[in-house]
Structure formats: C-alpha cells, structure tokens
Design goal:
Number of domains: 2
Strand content: 15-25%
Order of helices and strands: HEHEHEHEHEEEEEEEHEHEHEHH
CATH class of the largest domain: Alpha Beta
Structural class: alpha/beta
Number of helices: 10
CATH architecture of the largest domain: 3-Layer(aba) Sandwich
Strand order of the largest sheet: 2-1-3-4-5-6-9-10
Number of strands: 14
Largest sheet: 8 strands, mixed
Distance between the termini: 67 Å
CATH superfamily of the largest domain: L-asparaginase, N-terminal domain
Radius of gyration: 23 Å
Amino acid sequence: MKFSTGIRMLAFVLASLAAGAAVAKEPPRIVILATGGTIAGAQPKEGEPGYKAGSLSIGSLISAAPGIDDLARITGEQIASIGSQDMNDAVWLELAKRTNELLDDSMVDGVVVTHGTDTLEETAYFLSLVVDSDKPVVLVGSMRPATSTSPDGPLNLFNAVAVAADPGAKGRGVMVVSNDDLFAAREIQKTNTTDLQTFVAPNRGPVGEVYYGKPWYFGVPATRHTVNSEFSLDGVTKLPRVDIVYAHQNADGALIEAAVAAGAKGIVLAGVGDGNASRSMVDALAAAAKSGVLVVRSSRVGSGIVRRNIEIDDDELGFVAALELNPQKARVLLRLALLKTKSADDVQRMFREY
C-alpha cells in the first residue's frame, strides 16, 4: 500500500515538473509595430544611393532577419509607411494608443517599433513618457535601406526582438537598439548623416549592448519614465504647438514673434553655448513668456547641461532651463507638460524629473 502511494506521489511530482517545463518553454510573444523608415526602404535601382523610405511591409522585414522566429512568437502590424521626417502627431497618438493596448494584454510580452532614424529619438522619448507599462518597448531603425548591398536593418531588428523578449528588459523603460548598442530613449541622439554608428548618448552613455541576440545591460535610467510617468494621453486628440527657434550670430526676434503669431503655446530655444542668445532674441522670448507662452532654454551644441540663472536670469524672465535635454527632446516634454500646466515652476520640476 505504501509502495503504491509512493509511486502515485512520484508520478504526480514528475507530471508537475513536466507541466512546469512546458510552461517555461512557451516562447515570449512580441508584437512589431511598423512605421516605415529606412529600415523598410527600397532603392529604385540596385547599387544607387537613393531610396524611398517605408516601401517594404513588416512581413518583409521579419522574413529578412534569419533566426528571428527562434527568439519569440512574433506578429506584426503596419501603423504607418513613412519616412520619419514625415512623422506627425496623428501617428504618434495612434502608436502610443496601440502600444498601451498591446502591453495591457497578458498575452503580449513586449513591443518593438520600427522607425526611421531622423526623428527616432523624439518618438522614443515621447513613448517613454506616455507608455503605462513596465514591459519592454524597443525602437529600431537602420542607416541603410533594406535593398542595399549590406543592410544593417535585419540584425538591428533581430537584436531589438531579442531585447523585447528578454525578461531582464522589464522595467528599464523605452529603449533603442542600433548597431549592437542599447540606449535609453531619453539619452539617445543622432549625430551623423549616414554612418552606421550615428547614435550616441552624449551625456550618460549607452545602457547596454546586444551582440547577436544576447543583451548585456549596464544600468537603468535614473529619471522617471513609463509606469512612473505622470503623463497620460487619455482623451487627448491634439498636442499643443511648440516651436524650436535656433540661435545664431546676428539673430533677431523675428522667428520668435512669428511662432507666437502662429499660435505656439511653447517655444524652445536652441541656444548657443549654455542656452544663450542675442539680446534681441532674449527680449523677444521675454515678451513671449510675459504673454503666456512657455519658454524653455536648450542648447544647439549637442551635449552638456543648460542650468538655470547662469548668464540669463530665468527667475526674472520666467524661463525654464532644459538641463540635459536637447532642443528636440525639450520640445517633446514641453508639449506633454502643457497638457497639464502653464506654470513655469511646474514645468521646471518636470525637466528635473524626466
């Protein structure tokens, strides 16, 4: 009797272990959302440098990456088929909505977004502020079109899926994979027109690397993102207009006045040096701030911190200092901030935290 009971218990344990093993072997489920870009670009004539972005479907991109199906159970959706120079608010809102819907599904483990490199850093940062999930979201693009002699897209996409499928990527916020490097959305910046190693993180460096589908992480972002973000797009159908004005030698206030006349709710200064500008520009910005337009000082130089009250009295003029954010990232944060507040003090707090 005891022998029979022992056999039954052993059979039960073995069956439980087998069931657990079966569950453990279930592949991650990753959804790729395609928006176009060079990674989906096609040349009109083989060997020529010109190409049309967003020509190929997401199915074509997946089939061009050998071994990608071994990483995860993959499905794809075509959100847009554009070059990222044409990325717009309608696509942003749809992309954010669909990303949140997918990540809210228990059957989805992560999302990959294919994107052109020109505005990839802006979309990545936008998503990092409005995605309400700690599941991985990974953006990926390429510098060479899909039909080129040696395209970089297939391996970039392979690595992006590998990161999205990795349990270790959970809670790290929105990331970008490019040329074996892994970047936080807030930190990434495009620095070269055509080189494969165009993306860098000038202030804080990459957060990891991915070598043939094997992620290696260095750290996690120190700023707020995703599930810890206060921003939401619930009920939002339109984002406030924010313009960037570029400081240069002999600049006047004409472009600032034009931005205000066009209905800008915020203006970001791409300033010289430490977010500085000519007296004419500063006077025009001060007038804009006095009329209720939120003014943020950033810098055109590419790295460093724009601090408050160094050469310009931000307290007196009602300006916000962008700190580490470059002009294009500062614009993204300011647009979302304006959905919540018109207070320069509140917006400055957001620039410290995000």
